[in-house]
Specification:
Helix 3 crosses helix 4, helix 6 crosses helix 7 and helix 8 runs parallel beside helix 9. The protein has 2 domains: 423 residues, 3-Layer(aba) Sandwich (Rossmann fold), CATH 3.40.50; 126 residues, ANL, C-terminal domain (GMP Synthetase, Chain A, domain 3, 2-Layer Sandwich), CATH 3.30.300.30. Strand 31, helix 19 and strand 32 form a beta-alpha-beta unit. It has a 7-stranded mixed beta sheet with strand order 6-5-18-17-19-20-21. Strands 8-7-9-12-13 form a 5-stranded parallel beta sheet, with helices on both faces. It has a 4-stranded antiparallel beta sheet with strand order 25-26-28-29. The two termini are 43 Å apart. By secondary structure, it is an alpha/beta fold. The mean pLDDT is 94.
């Protein structure tokens, strides 16, 4: 297979990764002939690798570490950089110049910029206000916010005093918010009065009022006026009034242990109450710096964008770009409003160099017949990042054919659980169609077969066999660690089982075939759902799809649900075309026994389809937490379908 793209000799030589290799050679006298050799060293000599990364990233700290890694055989339980004292926010605010830190865009067309100096001052004012209200390290601050600068200011201020930040986007329903924030008992809630989406202005004041009244720990609501209109939330303080803006005390960065809690993230919660995943400051910082600088080649003159909300881990990942002194572009709204090219317009206008999005967005662009290379000046664009679900072969081809031929297309995969990636991009490696470029440095990733043996060029479970710094430090309200252990370590002792079904390729890259718990098993043959979606995306009449295994006559049969374009019907001819396309590129086992048209497909608020929830509905089993879904009403479309009874 020929690569779709190869980096130039010059771009490799000028990359951060090569600079890092030169440091390793100078300090340790080590040479590596390939990325695979470098990766092998990084997992076999973790103390050397992570120490070199600490030095290369110039981690700001007040006290040095005594040891890089203690108890490496304990997973979980390994201890990283003991003795060190640092502050996450201080590392993100190392630049205090007039350089642009944030460019903020909203769907209604508004635009504003904030310099690093202005950001530092705003964080100082918010942090002083937090201290003035009596908040201290370990307290929780919750954000019910769109992707706007005030969320970043509040997060950095929270981190600066050693408190813990947690956020949801304002499209969460009230019960979804209560399920999350209710568990962690925040003292302060930062909330918006509304947001824009798909041409509408949505008022959130009633939900903010309900959150305030039902979470008794909240002592203060700070309201951000994102939209014109109502600010009517009882006892709320307006953002500008909350800030300690006169005679602001100097910003003090609490110096804290490496594993001091920074963020509380949440599992999707479609199989029960969301798990509250606590991430440490040092591990998050070091891991995200590694991914930005070495795997994304992020530099201070870059303009970094990721289409995300504050309810998705990619927001946390994006914000960490400040530690590399880059300029961030924030966008809040629908990616397709007022038309499919809207985000590409922003990419051109803001000279975005690294553009992050979801696989679903790229597939939707192609379905909308958008050809940016003919309509947009994307001369500054040098990388596209994609995550959320596996990126299909067709989407790989679309990017290089219709967006830009000379860029690094990096499909990445990891999760909220690690606030980072197991497998991701590499500016010094070629891009092959349908493949994630490489295993992450320092991440001992393997694919295991059903006998728990590592395999290559075979499908199996994605595991990580050694500790890494960004593993969660614990789960909230999990005193005996049982939730934590059952989430990742129940399958194999001392081995992280991530729940992805994948395959290491001949190029030492990775293909993710879907979630392990959604793997289909017709006739005892394991099939990843992504293998089917990849083929269905080729069918122009199909807008979206979801695939499950239905228990049937002592076996499992494959059922495919499709959302069709307007005014298109699922005829026998179209169903046959779908089956023929799947059969031609996969196996007869992949061909669905049933194809059924539906009006909508349920997704989590971060946009992921929920195969298990649909499977439960089809089998008349309960779905325990529909508040985790963006469109829970869609589940009812799958209940008691006559086409599934024969």
């Amino acid at each position: 297979m020929k690569p779709l793209w190869q980096p130039s000799t010059e771009s490799i030589a000028n990359s951060n990764l090569q600079e890092f290799l030169r440091q390793i050679k100078q300090k340790l006298g080590l040479n590596f002939d390939s990325y695979q050799q470098l990766h092998q060293w990084s997992v076999e000599q973790p103390e050397q690798f992570w120490e070199q990364l600490w030095d290369y990233s110039e981690i700001q700290h007040s006290l040095p570490y005594n040891s890089v890694l203690r108890d490496p055989q304990r997973f979980p339980g390994a201890r990283w950089f003991e003795g060190a004292r640092l502050n996450f926010a201080e590392n993100l605010l190392r630049n205090r110049s007039d350089k642009t830190a944030i460019i903020a865009r909203l769907e209604n067309g508004s635009r504003r910029t904030i310099s690093y100096a202005e950001l530092y001052q705003q964080v100082a004012e918010f942090a002083a206000a937090l201290r003035d209200r009596g908040l201290v390290k370990g307290d929780r601050v919750a954000g019910f916010m769109p992707n706007v600068p005030e969320a970043i200011v509040a997060m950095l201020a929270t981190s600066s005093i050693g408190a813990i930040w947690s956020s949801c986007s304002p499209d969460f329903g009230i019960n979804g918010v209560l399920d999350r924030f209710g568990q962690i008992e925040p003292k302060l809630l930062l909330a918006c009065n509304g947001y824009y989406y798909n041409g509408k202005t949505i008022d959130t004041t009633a939900r903010v009022t309900a959150i305030q009244s039902q979470i008794k720990s909240i002592e203060q609501v700070v309201l951000v006026p994102v939209t014109p209109g109502s600010n009517d939330v009882p006892d709320a303080t307006m953002y500008s009034d909350f800030l300690f803006s006169k005679n602001t005390p100097e910003l003090q960065f609490e110096q804290l242990p490496f594993d001091h809690p920074l963020y509380i993230m949440y599992s999707s919660g479609t199989t029960g109450a969301p798990k509250c995943i606590v991430h440490g400051a040092g591990g998050t910082l070091l891991q995200q710096l590694k991914e930005h600088r070495l795997h994304t080649d992020l530099k201070p003159d870059d303009v970094l964008f990721y289409f995300t909300t504050c309810g998705w881990m990619m927001w946390n990942w994006l914000v960490a770009g400040l530690a590399s002194e880059t300029s961030l572009v924030l966008y809040d709204g629908s990616p397709f409003y007022p038309e499919p090219k809207s985000l590409l317009d922003i990419a051109e206008q803001e000279s975005i160099s690294i553009f992050g999005t979801s696989a679903k967005y790229i597939a939707a662009l192609e379905k909308a017949h958008v050809v940016p290379r003919e309509t947009h000046d994307l001369s500054n664009l040098r990388a596209i990042l994609s995550t959320g679900s596996p990126l299909s072969h067709e989407s790989f081809r679309y990017v290089y054919r219709d967006i830009k031929a000379d860029l690094c297309l990096s499909s990445i995969s990891g999760g909220t659980d690690i606030l980072s990636c197991f497998v991701l991009g590499n500016p010094c490696l070629p891009v092959y169609e349908g493949e994630i470029q490489c295993l992450g440095l320092g991440m001992a990733v393997e694919i295991w077969d059903q006998t728990a043996q590592p395999v290559e060029q075979q499908k199996g479970e994605l595991v990580c066999t050694r500790p890494f710094p960004s593993a969660p430090i614990y789960f909230w309200n999990d005193p005996d660690n049982q939730k934590y252990l059952s989430a990742y370590f129940n399958t194999y002792k001392n081995i992280w089982a991530h729940g992805d079904y994948g395959e290491i390729t001949a190029h030492n890259g990775m293909i993710i075939h879907g979630r392990s718990d959604a793997v289909l098993n017709p006739g005892g043959v394991r099939i990843g759902t992504a293998e089917i979606y990849r083929q269905v995306e080729k069918i122009d009449q199909v807008v979206d799809s979801i695939c499950i295994g239905q228990d049937w006559k002592d076996d499992v049969r494959v059922v495919l649900f499709v959302v069709l374009r307007p005014n298109i019907e699922l005829t026998d001819a179209l169903a046959q075309q779908i089956r023929a396309t799947i059969r031609a590129e996969t196996t007869p086992r992949h061909v669905p026994a049933k194809i059924i048209a539906v009006a909508d497909i349920p997704r989590t608020i971060s946009g992921k389809i929920v195969e298990l929830a649909v499977r439960n509905v089809v089998h008349n089993q309960p779905v325990t937490n529909t508040d985790a879904l963006a469109n829970p009403e869609a589940l009812m479309l799958f209940k008691d379908l006559p086409g599934l009874s024969d």
